[in-house]
Design goal:
There is one protein chain. By secondary structure, this protein is an all-alpha fold. Helix content is 55%, strand content 0%. The protein has a domain of 49 residues. The longest helix is centred in the middle third of the chain and has 14 residues. The radius of gyration is 23 Å and the shape is rod-shaped. InterPro entries: Homeodomain-like_sf (IPR009057), WH-like_DNA-bd_sf (IPR036388). It is found in: Nucleus.
């Protein structure tokens, strides 16, 4: 059985640089997207990010912020060791 879902990957740093170079030369977003075989929305977002921040590096976020501090984590671990039979 074939898997028809496409794999989504961010363009690597080299490809991002080539995309930005083409756009700086004056190529349109649509033509660059077609040349590299990626969606024009990705190229557009990359170009907008480059124009505002001056860099084309993807930022990675960790998702939700932590719910507990490291001190609270240590306290929870201490309580778990003290009361081994107690459930959460």
């Amino acid at each position: 059985m074939a898997n028809n879902q496409s794999v989504r990957r961010h363009p690597d740093a080299f490809k991002r640089g080539r995309i930005i170079g083409k756009l700086e030369e004056g190529s349109s977003v649509t033509s660059v997207a077609a040349e590299f075989g990626i969606a024009h929305s990705i190229v557009s977002r990359l170009w907008r990010q480059f124009q505002t921040t001056g860099t084309a590096i993807w930022g990675f976020s960790s998702g939700l912020p932590r719910g507990t501090t490291p001190t609270e984590d240590r306290y929870i671990a201490l309580q778990a060791r003290r009361n081994r039979r107690q459930t959460a």
